């Protein structure tokens, strides 16, 4: 049983965007990103156009030069610029940066020369070196700390999400421009030029938006020094490093420093004879603490190489990590190779900028689609296997793209490359998120992102060079001719590498299981979890769980459902958590006794899991093995809702512990009785136990947690409004349960004997 961690709810994004200053910055960032992608496309295209008629190698070099000049400076030099940018006004840096970049891009088509194209690309990237850290440092000053993660996520979304939009826009521009050029020859302005003009304008608009931003003044910003603690007045200032500091008098009454470490409090408590050495030491401590705080809050520009060096151990910590990192970087290499050679490839295939835009859009749109469906497709298939498999699919699609020199096929196949990459990326991120401990997770992701950027840069810049060195060849076998293109060769080489990566990563990542890849895949394609198929051989019973908040009516429905099923001729085992075994009863008493208010959330989660392990072993499994229908009032999802959402423990960790406790036993059906917590608690009345007496916020989170679980697994869940009359709720449950039930009389027996159903109870 595997569930994904939520990837940032739309509600969270909305609340961050409700913050006006951040929204404005985000809009400006989106415009700049759109302009950036548009300019990358336009400049790669211009590099090809401006070198038309030159030797193919020159053309390849020109494209590679654009990619290298566009991507390298931000990676290599950004730490340097970051140091400078922390010393100047950030808003001014962003505004001037946007205006300069806009002007540079507009100048490229006006000058219309390859060298200026390369020079302007480089200069614009140098400007971006200042703009990006200024923007990164501004965000924490605009949003509250708890929204920072979501704000960064939104930033990433626009950085990469604008790529397909820019590509679509570029393709549309190319089509419109060639249409106009066909109709009125004098109107045929090259689309790359138009794209660069549009790009310039997006930067000017972004500058105007940023100009109106209320960026806090330096002192108030996260990076600014906190005000120095006021110095104690009655004590002479002593430098702790000063050699002439007075020697303490051992007989003097010493001023006691309170636990708070507040030097003023210290002087107030012992005003008569303050110890100058203690005071000096205290001042030094306060100074050091202030310095440490300043250091902690100081904006540090990202140093890609240092990040990779210092955090490399996260990538090699375990075979699983190695496999994940290798696979994800392989995927980036594939993406980079496609981006690098795409413009020359479409040129060789006889298509112009429209084809280039389509190809670019196909990769990124495919990637976005892959990320969207990554956690949703083949729900019953192991995510880890799917990770490696999707890299393999990307590799195969890339291989075919290289082998088949046809634009339509290339568009379809590169979108498949993108889908595979997107699936692998999102699964990889989720698994790393689950596997790496909380405090190391940030470093692991930092390593991944830094390494991915380098891999992308290298493969996008080196790809065209290799293609140029290999060159284009026509292979003629009698009347059959085949164009073997340098670009195709690069794609084939990259594809073979990606396939090797997929294989190695599969070996490292996939769980050890007796179920073969193909058996599991075939079962998942039919929509049947292979584990359930296996279990069904051993466990002929049916497992139904009722979930919901306090007083939702679970016991009522469990009782009525049991009566109905018994009437239908089944052996029914109604049960509940916690407390259905001898040990469980003791655990229930411990868990619900108000004496234990303040129990640590982890201990609480483990006690519920212990009860569950006993419950499964002693009651549920034996009943399922007999073929009975087990109806349990609460199961694992209660822990996910109460201890996960309610106590805010990590859901993935709870899942892992419970999967182990229950040996992966998952219900066939979970009925969620949904009810506002206050109504449920009002139904119970009387005294409350330890969990019932939690705050309204806690119960609100529990309800939300249940609903999210149900949304994520609609196949297993039936969600009902618990405010409906009991009889109606029962009818809904019966309707859903009926198809799950085994025939009380085996079909063959019925055919032979024609007997009445056997009552198993
Ligand atoms: N659909 C309903 N409408 C109104 N009241 C109901 C409904 N279903 C159950 N009740 C009443 O609500 C109260 C709580 O019901 P029940 O004990 O079944 O809830 P529960 O979910 O098992 O509670 P707990 O959280 O304590 O396990 C009972 O008095 C029951 O009669
Ligand atoms: C299984 C389980 C239960 N709880 C909480 C939920 C309830 O407040 C009590 C159980 O009592 P009830 O009779 O079902 O109302 O325990 C929990 O917090 N976590 C769990 O895993």
From TrEMBL:
One of its GO terms (molecular function) is dTMP kinase activity. It is an enzyme of class 2 (transferase). It is found in: Cell membrane. The chain crosses the membrane at residues 25-51, 57-85, 92-108, 114-133, 154-174, 194-213, 323-342, 354-374, 386-404, 410-432, 444-470, 482-504. Keywords: ATP-binding, Cell membrane, Kinase, Membrane, Nucleotide biosynthesis, Nucleotide-binding, Transferase, Transmembrane, Transmembrane helix, Transport. The keyword Nucleotide-binding applies. Belongs to the thymidylate kinase family. Phosphorylation of dTMP to form dTDP in both de novo and salvage pathways of dTTP synthesis. This is Thymidylate kinase. It comes from Nocardiopsis sediminis.
């Amino acid at each position: 049983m595997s569930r994904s961690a939520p990837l940032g709810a739309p509600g969270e994004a909305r609340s961050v965007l409700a913050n006006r200053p951040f929204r404005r910055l985000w809009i400006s960032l989106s415009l700049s990103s759109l302009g950036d992608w548009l300019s990358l496309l336009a400049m790669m295209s211009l590099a090809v156009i401006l070198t038309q008629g030159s030797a193919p190698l020159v053309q390849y070099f020109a494209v590679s030069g654009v990619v290298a000049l566009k991507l390298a400076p931000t990676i290599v030099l950004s730490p340097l610029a970051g140091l400078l940018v922390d010393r100047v006004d950030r808003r001014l840096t962003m505004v001037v940066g946007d205006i300069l970049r806009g002007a540079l891009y507009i100048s490229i088509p006006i000058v219309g020369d390859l060298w200026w194209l390369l020079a302007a690309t480089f200069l614009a990237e140098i400007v971006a070196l200042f703009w990006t850290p200024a923007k990164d440092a501004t965000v924490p000053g605009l949003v509250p700390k708890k929204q920072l993660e979501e704000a960064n996520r939104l930033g990433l979304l626009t950085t990469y999400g604008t790529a397909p939009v820019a590509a679509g826009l570029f393709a549309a521009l190319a089509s419109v421009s060639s249409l106009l050029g066909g109709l009125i020859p004098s109107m045929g302005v090259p689309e790359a030029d138009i794209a660069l003009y549009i790009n310039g304008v997006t930067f000017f608009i972004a500058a105007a938006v940023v100009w109106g931003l209320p960026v806090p003044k330096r002192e108030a910003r996260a990076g600014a020094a906190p005000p120095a603690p006021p110095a104690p007045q009655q004590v002479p200032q002593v430098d702790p490093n000063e050699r002439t500091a007075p020697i303490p008098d051992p007989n003097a009454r010493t001023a006691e420093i309170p636990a708070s470490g507040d030097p003023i409090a210290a002087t107030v408590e012992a005003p008569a004879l303050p110890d100058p050495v203690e005071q000096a030491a205290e001042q030094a401590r306060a100074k050091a603490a202030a310095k440490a705080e300043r250091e902690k809050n100081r904006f540090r520009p990202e140093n890609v190489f240092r990040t990779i060096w210092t955090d490399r151990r996260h990538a090699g910590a375990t075979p699983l990590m190695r496999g994940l990192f290798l696979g994800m970087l392989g995927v980036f290499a594939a993406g980079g190779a496609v981006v690098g050679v795409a413009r020359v490839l479409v040129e060789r295939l006889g298509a112009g900028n429209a084809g280039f835009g389509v190809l670019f859009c196909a990769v990124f749109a495919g990637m976005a689609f892959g990320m969207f469906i990554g956690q949703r497709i083949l729900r019953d298939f192991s995510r880890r296997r799917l990770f490696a498999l999707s890299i393999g699919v990307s590799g195969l699609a890339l291989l075919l793209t290289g082998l088949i020199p046809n634009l339509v096929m290339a568009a379809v196949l590169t979108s498949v490359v993108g889908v595979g990459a997107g699936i692998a990326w999102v699964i990889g991120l989720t698994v790393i998120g689950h596997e790496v401990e909380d405090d190391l997770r940030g470093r692991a992701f930092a390593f991944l992102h830094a390494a991915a950027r380098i891999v992308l840069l290298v493969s996008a810049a080196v790809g065209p060079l290799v293609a140029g060195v290999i060159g284009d060849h026509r292979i003629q076998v009698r009347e059959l001719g085949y164009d073997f293109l340098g670009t195709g060769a690069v794609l084939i080489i990259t594809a073979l590498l990606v396939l090797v990566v997929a294989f190695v990563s599969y070996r490292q990542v996939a769980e050890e299981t007796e179920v073969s890849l193909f058996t599991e895949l075939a079962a998942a394609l039919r929509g049947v979890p292979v584990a359930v198929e296996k279990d069904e051989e051993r466990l002929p019973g049916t497992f139904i769980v009722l979930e919901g908040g306090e007083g939702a009516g679970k016991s009522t429905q469990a009782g009525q459902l049991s009566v109905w099923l018994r009437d239908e001729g089944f052996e029914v085992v109604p049960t509940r958590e916690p407390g259905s075994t001898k040990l469980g009863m003791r655990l229930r008493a411990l868990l619900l006794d108000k004496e234990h208010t303040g129990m640590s959330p982890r201990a609480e989660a483990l006690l519920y899991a212990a009860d569950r392990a006993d419950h499964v072993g002693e009651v549920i499994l034996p009943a399922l093995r007999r073929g009975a229908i087990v109806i349990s009032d609460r199961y694992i999802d209660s822990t996910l809702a109460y201890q996960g959402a309610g106590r805010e423990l990590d859901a993935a960790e709870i899942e892992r512990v419970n999967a182990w406790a229950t040996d992966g036993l998952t219900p066939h059906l979970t009925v969620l009785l949904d009810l506002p917590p206050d109504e449920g608690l009002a139904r119970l009345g009387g005294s409350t136990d330890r969990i019932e007496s939690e705050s309204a916020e806690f119960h609100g989170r529990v309800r939300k947690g249940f609903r999210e679980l149900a949304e994520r697994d609609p196949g297993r869940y039936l969600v009902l409004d618990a405010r409906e009359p009991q009889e109606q709720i029962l009818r809904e449950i019966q309707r859903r349960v009926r198809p799950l039930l085994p025939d009380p009389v085996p079909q063959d027996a019925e055919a032979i004997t024609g007997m009445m159903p056997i009552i198993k109870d």
